[in-house]
Write a structure and sequence with these properties.
Layout (H helix, E strand, L loop, with lengths): L2 H18 L33 E7 L7 E7 L7 E6 L6 E4 L1 E3 L2 E2 L2 E2 L2 E7 L7 E6 L6 E6 L18
Antiparallel strand pairs: 1-2, 2-8, 3-4, 3-9, 5-8, 6-7, 9-10
Length: 161
């Protein structure tokens, strides 16, 4: 049998098998198009003010604890795209700009996702920071971890669902 005939037979068998199987269908479930009733839309209302920063969270930005990454979403516009931060016992404020991303998934279009890395922080120090402008300013704070050492206790929290 020629190579062409063997290939034809293999393709024919594969096509016949594909018609018999479900072709990757794993469930008959189809999501309803209406919103979920188990978590109403108004459970987590957006903060007040035009284009107010939402979904604000922080992440330690390095292994030493001298860097923090502030992340947030602005729902309508790219601006303001910066964090203002300062030591709690100081009036000397600093501004750092964010990197902005967004994504699209079918008909959903995300807001503007911001990530700003604050570097050169002091260990075991309370910092304040703010996001937004005008009537949409939001203020938060964090404490950097103690200097890394063999006998330094370190407690952190994880929140999620």
């Amino acid at each position: 049998m020629s190579l062409l005939k063997v290939l034809f037979v293999l393709v024919t068998i594969a096509a016949a098998c594909a018609g018999v199987c479900n072709g990757g269908v794993t469930s008959t479930f189809v999501r309803k198009s209406q919103p979920s009733t188990c978590m109403p839309i108004d459970t987590f209302p957006p903060p007040p003010g035009y284009n107010a920063p939402e979904q604000v969270h922080i992440t330690q930005g390095d292994h030493d604890g001298k860097s923090m990454i502030i992340s947030w979403v602005t729902p309508l516009e790219r601006e303001p795209n910066y964090v203002i931060f300062w030591e709690a016992n100081s009036k000397n404020k600093h501004k750092i700009h964010s990197r902005i991303t967004s994504y699209r998934y079918y008909t959903y279009e995300s807001g503007y996702i911001h990530h700003a890395t604050i570097k050169g922080l002091k260990h075991d120090t309370l910092y304040n920071y703010q996001l937004g402008t005008g009537d949409a300013v939001r203020r938060f704070s964090f404490t950097t971890p103690p200097k890394v050492g063999p006998d330094v206790p370190y407690t952190f929290g994880v929140i999620g669902k």
